[in-house]
Every structure is written in C-alpha cells, then in structure tokens.
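Purpose: get a first structural picture of the assembly so the mutagenesis plan has something to point at.
Setup: two entries, given in the order below. No constraints added.
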Amino acid sequence: DGGITQSPKYLFRKEGQNVTLSCEQNLNHDAMYWYRQDPGQGLRLIYYSQIVNDFQKGDIAEGYSVSREKKESFPLTVTSAQKNPTAFYLCASSMGVATNEKLFFGSGTQLSVL
Amino acid sequence: SQKIEQNSEALNIQEGKTATLTCNYTNYSPAYLQWYRQDPGRGPVFLLLIRENEKEKRKERLKVTFDTTLKQSLFHITASQPADSATYLCALGYNNNDMRFGAGTRLTVKP
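Result (structure tokens, whole complex):
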C-alpha cells in the first residue's frame, strides 16, 4: 500500500524544546516537501528536497530544519527559534520538483504548544 | 505581491445541484493550476490539473476551467452528493517548488 506516512498525528511542544516530525514515503519519489497550514491561510512551503542529501528553503524556513539522508525519509525539526509553531504540518512528495505533477500528501501532524 | 483568493470561505448547496467554486489570482502568471480536496484532519488529495494553454478539463463529475485573461479558475461538481462535502484548495505555479495555495472553500452538500 503505497503512500506517505506522517507521525505522530498530534504533538505537543514545551517552550524552548525542539520537536521532530516524521515523514516517510514508499512511492519512490525524488522530491519531498514540508508545508505549514494555518486556519484561513493557504499552505505555505517550509522546505523541499529534490534529491538525497540536498534540500532548499521555502517561504517560511526560519525556525525549522530538515534532513534528507534517505530517499524515503524527510524529517522536519521545529526548533525553539520558531516562536509560533502551532499549526497543522503536511508532508508531501512528487516525482520531481521541476515539473507540475500532482503532490501526494500525508495525513498531517497537528503541533500545539503547551 | 502574489495573491490567490478562493471565492468564499464556505459554500452550502442542495444535493443534486452543481457546486461552483472560484479561484482568482493577481500579480501572477502561472503555468498550471491544480485542485485538491481536503477532509478535516487529513492531507489534501489531488483532483485535477489544468495547464495555461488548456481551457477546460473534465473528470467524471468534475470540471475545471482556466481563464488566463480573467486570471480565474472555476471548479464545478455536478450532481453533487453529501460525500462531496470537504474543503477544496486551488494551487498554482510553474514548478512544484513554487506552488501557491489558496485558503480553500469549505463545501457542504445537504441531503
């Protein structure tokens, strides 16, 4: 059953804490993305990766970090520098970046601040 | 600055009617436009893609139009059903790493 798996579904962060959101795909896609979704706003791109060991900042990368050590995995760390982290985080993948093909999304992680 | 507006935050229609959702954009000339469906607490699911040189695309009960002069896309669901109730997002761009998403329109189809 191919797709994208995000975990956990819900995550709580204490002040000053870094938290990591997991994203795994078995679609053999080269490109992976992280989006942030806030109520009443469109999805905003945080980071994307076109290939293993390479990633690029999106529109709102400050306070976030990523890694791409394996093709299947693209974890997102929300650092303590992100002062307003409460949001719904979505991971996505596609065959490539320099295309206009559809994105496949995971089920999302809701991050809240304690 | 680039702006994407989806006609309204919420749209209520009766079962069997045609739902029409609007996506307007300014200060932008995208090469393509996509529509996604999102259910509460879930990730968006791709529905249709239309390119700048295409006027209309259809898939089963769905139809999308793309007017680059008006800078507008219309998304139609014919013979709507309660199961069509969801939030619908438009997204436009040149490549996948520069896609811009609208805030979405929440559609409710009442039996």
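The interface with chain A takes residues 4, 9, 31-32, 34, 36, 41-46, 49, 51, 89, 91, 93-97, 99-104 of chain B (CB under 8 Å).
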